[in-house]
Amino acid sequence: MKKSTYTIATLGSHSSLQILKGAKDEGFATLLVTTSNRVDFYKQYSFIDTIIPVVSFAEFPKIESMLKKKNSIIIPHGSFVAYLGIEKNKKMQLPYFGNKKVLDFESDRNLQREWLVEAGITVPKHFKNAEDAAYPVIVKTFGAAGGAGYFYAKNKKEFNKKIGSFKKQHYTVQEYIVGVNVYIHYFYSPLTKKVEILSVDRRYETNVDGLGRLPLSAQEGLDINPSYVVVGNSPLVIRESLLPEVQKMGERIVAVSKKIINKKGMYGPFCLETIVTPDQKFYAVEISCRIVAGTNLFMNGSPYSWLLYNEPMSTGRRIAREIKLAIKKKRLREILD
Description:
The chain has helices spanning 16-25, 39-43, 64-69, 78-91, 102-106, 109-118, 156-162, 208-211, 216-219, 243-260, 303-309, 315-328; strands at residues 7-11, 29-35, 50-54, 72-74, 126-127, 137-141, 151-153, 171-175, 180-189, 194-207, 228-235, 268-276, 282-288. By secondary structure, the chain is α+β, with helices and mostly antiparallel strands. It folds into three domains: 3-96, Rossmann fold; 106-122 and 178-207 and 232-313, 2-Layer Sandwich (D-amino Acid Aminotransferase, Chain A, domain 1), CATH 3.30.470.20; 126-175, Dna Ligase, domain 1, CATH 3.30.1490. Strands 11-10-9-12-13 form a five-stranded antiparallel beta sheet. A four-stranded parallel beta sheet has the order 3-2-1-4.
C-alpha cells in the first residue's frame, strides 16, 4: 500500500502538533483525537486533516473502529499512558508505532535502573528506605508525570515529613546529583540499524529553577518547598567532546533492550534523561521510551538533526519518515505493534 492510504493519528496533547506536522510533510493524511474544549484551537492548523472530538481521552477505545476505517497508525506520546493507562495502551487494536512491551519498563523505575546499569551507564545511588539514605535525596513517583509529586529532602526528618502523601504510591529514593540536567533525544531505526542523536534540551521546573536564582542568604527562612513540575524546555548544545559518549550510551541502551524486553527491543524515539556533573560525567536518571515534549523545541530541526539530514527534521517528522521508508521496503510490520 502507498503511504497516501495511511493516516497518522494521535491524541491532541503533549507533542501532537509536531507529530502531525511531520506526518503531513512526509505526505500522510493526519488525524487528531482531542477533547471538545480544544477543537477550536487545533482547527487553525491546516496540516490536521481530521479532528475527532471526545468528552475525555478515556473514551479513546470507543472510537478505535472509526480510526481503523481510516487505516490509522497510532503514534504514542506521554499523554497516552497518562490518560489511558498502560493496560488500555496494550489492548489497543490499531497499528501502534513502537514496542508496547517497553511500557512496563518506562512505568517501573526499578526496571529502568536495571536496564541502565546493564547498559553500563552510571546512575544515582538508590536507597530502599530513609534509614539507609545518604542525604540529600530526591523522591520520585513511578510513571510519566512531568515532575509532579517529586520532592527533595535534605535529611531524614524532612523525608518523614514529606513522604506522607506518597503512602499509596510507588516511589523511588535517589541520591540527589548536583549538575546540569541534559535530556538527549535519540531515534533508533530497526530498518537502518542506526541510533541517531536528533536534539538535546534542558527543562525549566517550578519553582526549583526560580529558587536557584536566589542567593543562599535570600533562601534562608523561606517556607517554600522545591517543586520539579516541568513548565517548559530550552534548547541545549553540549560540548562536542561529549558527543561520542552520548552516542555510545544510546547504542548500549538499544542493544540491552533487545536482551531484556524482546528481540525487537526499543525502537523509534526515546530520551535519556541525565545530569552532567562538573567532571563531565553523565548520570542517567530516567529513560522515556517514546517522543518527549522537549523535542517540540525543534519542529524545524536541531543542529544535530541538520548534521544528519541537511533538511528540517523534527522527531515527529523522523517518525513519519521511518514509516514511509518501511512502507517502501514492505517492512511496515517490523515497526508496528
